[in-house]
Design brief:
The structure holds two protein chains of two kinds.
Chain A (H helix, E strand, L loop, with lengths): L2 H15 L1 H6 L7 H39 L3 H30 L3 H6 L4 H35 L3 H13 L2 H18 L5 H31 L3 H16 L2 H8 L4 H47 L10 H14 L4 H9 L1 H12 L1 H12 L5 H14 L7 H5 L4 H5 L4 H30 L7 H25 L8 H4 L4 H23 L4 H28 L2
Helix pairs in contact in A: 1-6, 3-4, 3-6, 4-6, 4-8, 4-9, 4-10, 4-11, 6-7, 6-12, 7-12, 8-9, 8-12, 9-10, 9-15, 11-12, 13-20, 17-20, 17-21, 17-23, 20-21, 21-23, 21-24, 23-24
Chain B lengths: L1 E8 L9 E8 L4 E5 L6 H8 L7 E6 L2 E2 L4 H7 E4 L11 H11 L4 H14 L15 H13 L5 E5 L7 H16 L3 E6 L2 H7 L2 E6 L2 E7 H7 L4 H8 L5 H9 L1
Parallel strand pairs in B: 3-8, 3-9, 6-7, 7-8
Antiparallel strand pairs in B: 1-2, 1-4, 4-5, 9-10
The chains are: A mainly alpha, B alpha/beta.
């Protein structure tokens, strides 16, 4: 094992990947003025998103600590907070870990160089640790602030805070690394999409289940129990989690120097164990990944034998092209499909966690109000807003975007194809949800006569506004697919824009439900505006140098 | 057929011109070889010809249409093979050809026959139903050439077309280029291989540091000059004393 080489690999991986620059930069070929404006916009978006997370986590941390402080179990409160932070990091790290370990395009280069698999693994493990540290800023800052608030600033709290920041990512990194490796071992180079999906989204589902189960316990006691039983439930919850050895030690290290040293030793042990356990498994996994790639090529070689050259209308061809682009990178398709099924996943999670019953009760209380139709209609719109199919549509094309410049394809037709693809792929399923929601909540089905057209117009507006964002500053230069989709700030900016785009018509639906026609007219005006904007942005992008 | 009129390109105001004041014409039915060392401005010129880059000054005229004003129309007349193959990798070769046929609106009765002919010519029959992601560089290059020819363009623009091709495919491509011109088509291609240019072209132009420094018809060149095109190229581009340079480096 050559440690200097491992550290060099980490250094060059970070120089080449430029994670922060990747996150905040776009195409990088826009004019200087636009570049500065885009950079400011992206940095602002980054600050806004990070501070919202810091704020939300901070509120939770203060809540837990306030409660535990009242009952003199502050160390358990801190332990509970570190547990929540660990879950957060676990969920986030699974989204990029597999790529840095096995799917990065630079792996081909590494395989040609005299570097052992263990050296390579260790370098990637450290790289992932550095990434986790960056995300851990969001988790640790509010937690450290809350701890200083309750325990004051002492040498011990200061040193423990630094340890918390440096060592909190180790456990989630170990767990998610094991999960990724387990997935590859289970699949053994086979391409079974359902197993892939379950492993990739498992931690997220577990985290959601855990959080909803917890909130369900609380709402249950709110509706059914007395205040004392509610407090008891809450106390037990924090105590049980706070007693888990690893987290318990993390909570205690802020109060006792012995626990501080004990935790540092435990964390270092954990780190060393991670390397010792995962390194040999990694080697085997790399062989599976290589055989997986070979299998794919062989399978595809035998997959189609048509030999006929079908003729299509160009518009249909361009819609089909969107599907090919979606298929081009691992993660594009599964990300989009999971967006399609968000409502179903949520309903299943609520059903399993028992929250559905409580929600049903709340909904029944609202069902007699005049706003009920509008509430259900808004919920479906919110699902429709939180998709990235159009907001990353241009970015997903990557370097093949140049074909739009080289071939005589009308950009207006391309935009239409992208919008229709959005409607077919996402909105069609959401219209089904709208109908099912209306049936489930006993809403008069005549309402569908205005709901469906308005929803479709608003979906077109969502698609157009999202395309406008992506055409204005696409992320075309990427090495790993997730950079174009999951790590693309355009997706997040577009979600905010989408809400602004649908808000005017929804406000009319809420407060002037007898003037639906005006909601439709307003949506059509927005459609006209965004159609022009997206055409200008597309033209500029295609004809710019 | 193709006219470069005072064509210049400067990427940034402070930086030197990538292409400066290019003035030459490629006539209908001729093969024009565009030569130059790396970074001389060949790709920038080709990108302006294809309408991907806007000239800073001057223009490119294709069949009496100014490219920057009517790029949609001029692109429809050109079959282009880029230096780096660019495809939707999840499509099969055949699906990509169908895509190109749809884009160029190739008659549905003719496309099958043309495709079969070209696929057979470039020996891609076995791989045509495989995904492009499984192709080697040479196979991708062949697919690029088929895609450029399938819509029967008036002009063929090829950027380093021989790179990655096996000797047989390379021979076939040279033959295809000759026959294409015999039927009235025009070929504009860039290459680093001087022998290819000398044997194939009607006219050549050498570009260095963005400027056209040498232009000749090969017929005249072969009659007048006793030196090879390679030697002329090295002299013009300032690399005439390469032997002593290599000697020095290898010591």
């Amino acid at each position: 094992m050559r440690l200097n080489l491992v550290l060099s690999l980490v250094k060059y991986q970070l120089i080449a990947a430029k994670p922060l620059e990747q996150f905040i930069s776009g195409a990088g070929k826009t004019k200087k003025k636009n570049k500065i404006f885009n950079l400011i916009l992206r940095v602002l978006a980054l600050i806004l998103i990070s501070s919202s997370f810091i704020f939300l986590l901070g509120i939770n941390y203060f809540g837990y600590m306030h409660f535990s402080n009242m009952f003199n179990i502050l160390e358990k409160g801190i332990a509970f907070c570190t547990f929540s932070g660990t879950l957060f990091l676990l969920f986030v790290s699974t989204s990029y870990l597999e790529h840095t370990y096995f799917r990065g395009k630079d792996i081909k280069i590494w395989r040609l160089l005299p570097i052992s698999k263990t050296e390579f693994f260790l370098s990637r493990f450290i790289t992932n640790y550095v990434y986790s540290l960056m995300i851990n800023l969001i988790v640790s800052i509010p937690l450290i602030v809350a701890i200083f608030y309750y325990l004051g600033f002492t040498l011990l709290t200061f040193l423990s805070s630094i340890s918390l920041f440096l060592l909190l990512p180790i456990l989630p990194l170990l767990l998610s690394s094991l999960l990724v490796i387990l997935k590859i071992v289970v699949l053994k180079g086979k391409n079974i999409k359902i197993v892939d999906f379950l492993f990739s989204n498992g931690p997220f589902l577990v985290a959601i289940l855990y959080l909803t189960k917890m909130s369900n316990e609380m709402t249950k006691s709110m509706f059914e129990g007395s205040q004392s039983s509610q407090i008891e439930g809450y106390f037990n919850y924090i105590s049980n989690i706070g007693d888990l050895p690893y987290f318990s030690l993390m909570g205690k290290m802020f109060l006792s120097p012995y626990s501080f040293f004990a935790f540092i030793i435990l964390a270092i042990l954990c780190f060393s164990l991670s390397v010792l356990i995962i390194a040999p498994l990694f080697e085997r996994c790399m062989n599976y990944v290589i055989s997986e790639n070979n299998n794919k090529i062989k399978k595809k070689k035998n997959s189609t034998k048509s030999n006929s050259l079908k003729s299509n209308n160009l518009f249909l061809t361009l819609i089909k092209r969107e599907l090919f682009i979606l298929e081009s990178e691992k993660g594009f398709l599964s990300e989009s499909i999971s967006e399609m099924f968000i409502p179903i996943v949520l309903i299943i999670v609520w059903q399993i966690s028992g929250s559905l019953e409580a929600m049903n009760q709340i909904i029944n209380n609202f069902s007699n109000t005049p706003y009920f139709n509008a509430i259900i209609f808004t919920i479906v719109h919110l699902f429709a807003s939180f998709v990235m199919i159009s907001s990353t549509s241009v970015s997903r094309e990557g370097r093949t975007f140049k074909l739009n410049k080289l071939l005589p394809i009308d950009y207006k037709l391309t935009i239409k194809a992208k919008v229709v693809f959005h409607l077919l792929f996402i909105s069609a399923v959401q219209v089904v949800y709208l109908i099912l929601f209306c049936i489930f909540f006993n809403i008069d089905l005549n309402n569908l006569l205005w709901m469906i057209p308005l929803f479709i117009i608003n979906s077109i507006n969502i698609a157009l506004s999202n395309l406008f964002i992506d055409y204005s500053n696409p992320k075309l230069e990427w090495e790993v697919g997730i950079s174009a989709m999951k790590r693309n700030v355009n997706g997040l900016i577009s979600m905010l824009i989408s809400i602004g785009v649908i808000a005017p018509s929804l406000l009319i639906v809420f407060f002037k439900s007898n003037l639906i026609i005006f909601a439709i007219i307003i949506s059509l005006v927005i459609l006209f505006i965004f159609n022009n904007l997206v055409q200008k942005a597309a033209k500029k992008l295609i004809y710019q140098d | 057929m193709i006219e470069f009129k005072n064509l210049s390109k400067q990427y940034q105001k402070e930086k030197p011109f990538a292409v400066k004041n290019l003035n030459f014409e490629v006539k209908k039915g001729e093969i024009f070889g565009f030569l130059g060392p790396n970074g001389a401005g060949k790709s920038t010129t080709i990108n302006m010809l294809m309408g991907v880059l806007k000239p800073s000054k001057g223009c490119v005229v294709v069949d009496n249409h100014v490219v920057s004003d009517e790029s949609f129309l001029t692109k429809s007349m050109i079959g282009f093979v880029p230096d780096e193959p660019l495809f939707y990798e999840k499509m099969t070769g055949l699906q990509y050809i169908a895509f190109i046929c749809d884009v160029f609106d190739v008659d549905k009765n003719e496309r099958q026959e043309r495709a079969n002919r070209l696929i057979k010519l470039f020996n891609l029959e076995k791989a045509i139903d495989d995904r492009i992601s499984s192709y080697s560089h040479g196979m991708k290059q062949k697919l690029g050439i088929i895609s450029a020819l399938i819509h029967e363009p008036k002009i063929l623009v090829l950027d380093e077309p021989m790179v990655g091709l096996d000797p047989k495919a390379s021979y076939i491509l040279k033959d295809v280029m000759k026959r294409f011109c015999d039927k009235g088509g025009t070929v504009f291609f860039s290459t680093h291989v001087m022998e290819v240019a000398q044997n194939l072209c009607d006219n050549v132009g050498i570009i260095n540091k963005g400027e056209l420094v040498y232009s000749t018809s090969l017929k005249e060149f072969n009659d007048k000059e006793d030196a090879s095109l390679e030697k002329i190229f090295l002299e013009i581009t300032g690399n005439e004393d390469l032997n002593s340079f290599v000697d020095e480096a290898m010591i």
